[in-house]
Amino acid sequence: MSQNKSIYGGQAVIEGVMFAGKHVNVTAVRRKNDEIIFLEVPRTTQRWVQALKKIPLVRGVVGIVESSAKGSQHLNFSMEAYAEDEAKEEESKQPEAVKAEAKAEEPGKEKSGFSLSMIVGVAVAGVLSFIFGKLIFTAVPAALEELLFQGLFESKVGHNLLEGLIKIVLLLTYLYLMSMTPIIKRLFQYHGAEHKVISAYEAGEELTVKNVQKFSRLHYRCGSSFIIFTVIVGVVIYSLPIFTWDTIWERIYIRILLLPVVLGISYEVLRWTNALRDMPVLRYLGYPGLWLQLLTTKEPKDDQVAVSIASFNRMRELDQQMAKG
């Protein structure tokens, strides 16, 4: 990747893609009538948050929480659009008499929009769901390993490795079952489209559907890679001699207490593997994350890539406008 190119990230949403720029976050969503709509949210970060994001180990946790909050707004936007399309399709199948009755019952109904309270509420819900999910994913494998294999090893390292294996099995099972549902499969296709666009941009290619489709759906800087690194880093940290336990509750307590440390170090490892991805031997450090992406991404169709390109181009356009002031 060229040194003067900006680093961009994004996420898949329902029937679309969000890209985060320096000054604005943009989501493009394709409606069922093939219209592409956009949600454009300027990035406003407090100075103290910006300061924290410059501190190694701390910046990872801050960035994750911030991404969870902002990403939830864009996911909610896509879900509203999807639900509205589904409702219209369902309504079109109803007899005219039923449609007229429904309209008469809701004379004051207005089109839903994004109020400030709604945006704040969605952001808070996103952060809380992320924290709750991480706590569950941290506590359950530790508890299972303790209950099933309590006397198998004398060494804590053996138990920690088994705990990590249980985490990976649970993670892969969950992702596989999720990918079987049609809506999540399409979400994973948009995830692949997001990666392809970023890779094409980083390679200096013109962003056309044909060009973008030539690139891999896997990317070193993906959040899926981050997930697998948290498992690996967790095993290493929990195995340090200073972190011992005697009961299952002590074990879970230590895991939860060390969660910010694991997240912070995993984020740095992700940045490190991305920086080394062009080096012949060290590039293999990022392979576990790429392997996980085989589950969390799917090959996108041309129309899905087109939506991803539209989102990226709009984000870049607004970023340039806002940079000029």
Shape category: globular
Total helix count? Answer: 11
The topology string of helices and strands comes to EEEEHHHHHHHHHHH
DSSP summary, beta strand count: 4
**Percentage of β-strand residues:** 5-15%
**Separation, N- and C-terminal Cα atoms:** 28 Å
Average per-residue pLDDT, rounded, comes to: 82
Sketch the major β-sheet. Answer: 4 strands, antiparallel
Rounded to the nearest angstrom, the radius of gyration is: 22 Å
Strand adjacency order, main sheet: 1-2-3-4
Uncertain regions spanning at least 5 consecutive residues: 102-128
Describe this protein with a few key phrases.
65% helix, 11 helices, alpha+beta
Task: Kindly describe this structure.
With about 325 residues, the chain is of the alpha+beta class. Helix content is about 65%, strand content about 5%. It has helices at about 45-50, 60-90, 95-105, 115-150, 155-180, 180-200, 210, 225-240, 250-275, 285-295, 300-325; strands at about 10-15, 15-20, 25-30, 35-40. The protein has a four-stranded antiparallel beta sheet with strand order 1-2-3-4. Residues about 100-130 have low confidence and may be disordered.
Task: Provide a brief overview of the structure.
The chain has eleven helices and four strands; from the N terminus they run E-E-E-E-H-H-H-H-H-H-H-H-H-H-H. It is α+β, with helices and mostly antiparallel strands. The relative contact order is 0.15.
